[in-house]
Amino acid sequence: MGIEVGGLLGLIWLIIVIWAIVKVAKSGAGGLAKLVWILVLLFFPLVGLIAWFLFGPKG
Questions:
Q1: pLDDT tens digits, 19-38
Q2: Distance linking the first and last C-alpha atoms of the chain
Q3: Which of 1, 22, 24, 33 is the most exposed place for a label (fewest CB within 10 A)?
């Protein structure tokens, strides 16, 4: 009857990745840089999210 923990964590992870993609899209980075960051976030979500937090466009 309860929500499966894995499903809930997956949903939270999806929300975080979507949030990061929106932040990249709204950033002041150039078009190619935005595209590369979004592709990295989509294809390598864990590594991409960590890299984006450390090295990604600010603002």
A1: 988 988 888 888 898 899 88
A2: 42
A3: 1
- Residue identified by tokens 């990061």 is 20
Phi (first) and psi of residue 7, to 5 degrees: -65, -40
Structure tokens at 1: 């009857």
- The total number of residues shown for the chain amounts to 59
Within 10 angstroms of residue 41's Cβ, the number of other Cβ atoms is 23
Long-range contacts of 39-43 (CB under 8 A, 24+ apart): 41/17, 42/17
Which secondary-structure segment (H or E) carries 43? helix 31-43
What is the reported pTM?
0.75
